[in-house]
Amino acid sequence: MGSTKPLTGAGLRGQVAGKTALSTVGVSGSGLTYRGYDIKDLVEHCEFEEVAYLILKGKLPTRDELLAYKSKLKSLRRLPGELKSALENIPANAHPMDVMRTGCSMLGNLETELDFSDQEDAADRLLAIFPSIICYWYRYNHDGVRIDENTDDGSIGAHFLHMLHDETPKALHETVMNVSLILYAEHEFNASTFTARVCASTLSDMHSCITGAIGSLRGPLHGGANEAAMDMIAKFNGPDHAEREMLGMLERKEKIMGFGHAIYSESDPRNEIIKGWSEKLADDVGDSALYPVSVRCEEVMWREKRLFCNADFFHASAYHFMGIPTKLFTPIFVMSRVTGWAAHVMEQRADNRIIRPSAEYVGEAPRRVQPISERS
Ligand SMILES: CC(=O)SCCNC(=O)CCNC(=O)[C@H](O)C(C)(C)COP(=O)(O)OP(=O)(O)OC[C@H]1O[C@@H](n2cnc3c(N)ncnc32)[C@H](O)[C@@H]1OP(=O)(O)O
Ligand SMILES: O=C([O-])CC(=O)C(=O)O
């Protein structure tokens, strides 16, 4: 199990900030459970949509419930015309996470959650529409085409890859997307989820909560690490070069993205799973560079610093082998984590008190305002 570190100090580390029935991190099983189910068990037996149902509705679906849920999600993929126009107006050099944030916020104007009784529908709509949002913007701005977002693909992962590459994805890629979306779906009180809960605690709407969460996920210390890890490993021309560069970065006390974790102390259980798929994808594309480079990075970080790969590190090579542009890596995290965020919003609303901690004041002692004419 990925045991937890001594949790004290800055960053609210180790402080219980609320209750959740959604997941445990570093507590039991392989180290990550969703509603009591171990992540390894879920990856082995479930589709992402089943796990989304579990997270959002509280139980694993029956076969009929899953079919109905997948068909509902399929019917929610379409983009309103006003949203398409907004996406067309976002420049090609914008960061795709900013596109996701704007897309979510714009949808909140068009399909405002007027009452909390709409919350499950608002969550399902976001889950279904995020792949359409990012692919519509990307293909319009990079390839000059207006894609048809109403594909017939049976899963969210295949829908995304189909719109991105303009062809039905191969089975291996659909499987890896499925695994990846499951792995990223939920992770207790991480920074983006906590953002969503703080927003929810003011009784704000679902789109505001998710928009804020996207902003938090964007940073390289959180979801943005998969993209940053890719940028780093792409610069290494082989394992020995990677080792030399990594040692230099450590010497200069630089942060190496895709390593370490706020809660786990020895391993992130998601790493072993995505690393296995990255290796399979490397074989599939005949890679003899990026995967060995990634493995050497992992060895060096553990040997030198006892730092291990988190969920993001091997996601970088896995996504790359599937032909996904690096800048779209973190938006995939959004496509998955929206399930966890929305479930946390609903959980917060069900037992709410506004989240309002206190601060330790370290500023000036009380003093009088000097008239402006006397200030130097
Ligand atoms: C899906 C996710 O969001 S997983 C997280 C993705 N983020 C990253 O991969 C970014 C790189 N990693 C990090 O910045 C950190 O490990 C975090 C943000 C994930 C966790 O931060 P913290 O809980 O503050 O880390 P922690 O307390 O373990 O740090 C201990 C020491 O290790 C160092 N350290 C931690 N991670 C790294 C890293 N990736 N590279 C270099 N040094 C590191 C810290 O700087 C600190 O050094 P110090 O004692 O000299 O100040
Ligand atoms: O829990 C965290 O701090 C970050 C993380 O791994 C996640 O959100 O998946």
From TrEMBL:
Pathway: Carbohydrate metabolism; tricarboxylic acid cycle; isocitrate from oxaloacetate: step 1/2; Organic acid metabolism; propanoate degradation. It catalyses: oxaloacetate + acetyl-CoA + H2O = citrate + CoA + H(+); propanoyl-CoA + oxaloacetate + H2O = (2S,3S)-2-methylcitrate + CoA + H(+). GO terms for biological process: carbohydrate metabolic process; propionate metabolic process, methylcitrate cycle; tricarboxylic acid cycle. GO terms for cellular component: cytoplasm. Keywords: Transferase, Tricarboxylic acid cycle. The active site is at H261, D312. The keyword Ribonucleoprotein does not apply. One of its GO terms (molecular function) is citrate synthase activity. InterPro entries: 2-MeCitrate/Citrate_synth_II, Citrate_synth-like_lrg_a-sub, Citrate_synth-like_sm_a-sub, Citrate_synthase, Citrate_synthase_bac-typ, Citrate_synthase_sf. Belongs to the citrate synthase family. NCBIfam families: cit_synth_II, PRK12351.1. This is Citrate synthase.
